[in-house]
Amino acid sequence: MAEKLSVETRQHMLKKMLEIRYCEERIQELFLENVIRGTTHLCIGQEAVSLAMAANVDAKRGDTVTCTYRGHGHALALGMPLKSMMAEMMGKASGCSKGKGGSMHLTDMEVGLIGTFAIVGAGLPVTNGAALTAQIKKTGAVSISIFGDGTPNIGAWHEAVNLAAVWKLPAVFLCENNLYGEYSAYGDTAPVPNVADRASAYNIPGVIVDGQDVEAVHAVIKTAVEYARAGNGPTLIEAKTYRYKGHSRSDPAAYRPAGELEEWLKRDPINLLADKMKADGQLTDDQLASMRKAAEKEVQDVTEWALAEPYPSLESVYEDIWV
Ligand SMILES: Cc1ncc(C[n+]2csc(CCOP(=O)(O)OP(=O)(O)O)c2C)c(N)n1
Ligand SMILES: [Mg+2]
Questions:
Q1: pTM (2 decimals)?
Q2: Which of 189, 193, 187, 215 is nearest to 206 (CA)?
Q3: Residue nearest to ligand 1 atom 18, measured at CA
Q4: Measured in angstroms, how far is the CA atom of residue 79 from the centroid of ligand 2?
Q5: Does residue 210 have its Cβ closer than 6 Å to ligand 1?
Q6: For position 2, what pLDDT does the model report?
Q7: Please, which of 84, 203, 228, 286 could form a disulfide with 96 given CB 3.0 to 4.6 Å?
């Protein structure tokens, strides 16, 4: 059992996980209403990893994060304002990427988020770049790259992990194994039972953790971050988790075996933390109910605000581009 976090940290994590959950549910609705265009990849069910990761990132110190198109939760957990995220979803000028990125291209260097990447495996080499900068400048900063279980089947993943291992870069490679890469089950596309097993090929630590238990994930990331800061190089962490929804917006996930979702729902990350807090006398049912209500209202208020925000001007297509 992982060490218990402080009551303040637990409260913060619970609040944020609820915010992410409602936000993702609202995004799905907005997508179906055609208010959000393009596509969306929801992280419902995977919230614990986002919070555990964010608690180990110190943006003021220069720590950075890269993640994937399934990155709304990571961005919010790191502290990206909900308004900034929701406006970006809708392509509004007040969004974090000025409305030009959308769901898959979130960025906010204030909170250390270099970016969410739509290309599978694209975040790892960028994390290496940030980690190399930290190593050369001796800042003590660490860069974390978050990716899915399908990503170690991509060449860029291997090149990045290899280089980080050889140069002992201050990086953490954090896999959210949600059992599926698009519509393919993990076991159908990978020759090793666990993603973490691949660490031995690069002579780095490989750690498996219960991705639904935010305190357990927090503990292993903390160890990996300290290991990286001390100059020992990267760690590969595999958090076993589950996405409740399909791969993207319109995928009903019919390829999943009957009963699988129901099994995972029994170990919902929000409920797991709430239950621990209740058992420790830190939370009552009434308090949890009002936290749920508050999160729902906040998401609803921000949605109303974002709906009224303007779209970027036509001229702005020529801004923020490299020539
Ligand atoms: C280089 C590349 N190949 C293929 C795709 C199409 N694609 C988008 S998501 C995805 C599956 C990735 O699965 P996983 O790494 O498990 O992440 P998850 O979506 O489960 O979070 C694929 C193949 C892509 N975006 N980039
Ligand atoms: Mg996956």
A1: 0.98
A2: 193
A3: 148
A4: 24
A5: no
A6: 84
A7: 84
Angle, to 10 degrees, between the axis of helix 269-279 and the axis of helix 47-54?
A: 70
User: Is 120 a pocket residue for ligand 1 (Cβ < 6 Å)?
Assistant: yes
Q: Which CATH superfamily is domain 7-307 in?
A: Thiamin diphosphate (ThDP)-binding fold, Pyr/PP domains (3.40.50.970)
Determine the distance from the C-alpha atom of residue 104 to the mean position of all C-alpha atoms in its chain, rounded to a whole number: 12
What is the distance between the alpha carbons of residues 307 and 256, in angstroms, rounded to a whole number? 35
Whether residue 231 has pLDDT greater than 90: yes
Sequence-ordered strand ranges (E) for 13-137:
64-68, 113-117
Spatial neighbors of 291 by CB under 8 A, at least 6 apart, are: 14, 15, 18
Q: Which atom of ligand 1 is nearest to the CA of 118?
A: 25
pLDDT of 323 reads 81
Residue 321, token pair as written in the block: 């581009």
Handedness of CA 35, 36, 38, 43 (dihedral sign): negative
Is residue 171 within 8 Å of residue 164, measured between CB atoms? yes
Pocket test for ligand 1, best of 42, 46, 74, 120 (most atoms within 8 A of CB): 120
Q: What is the spatial distance between Cα 198 and Cα 26, in angstroms, rounded to a whole number?
A: 37
State mean pLDDT over 300-308. Answer: 98
pLDDT class of 249 with cuts at 50, 70, 90: confident
Say what the pLDDT of residue 265 is.
Answer: 98
Give the chain's length: 323
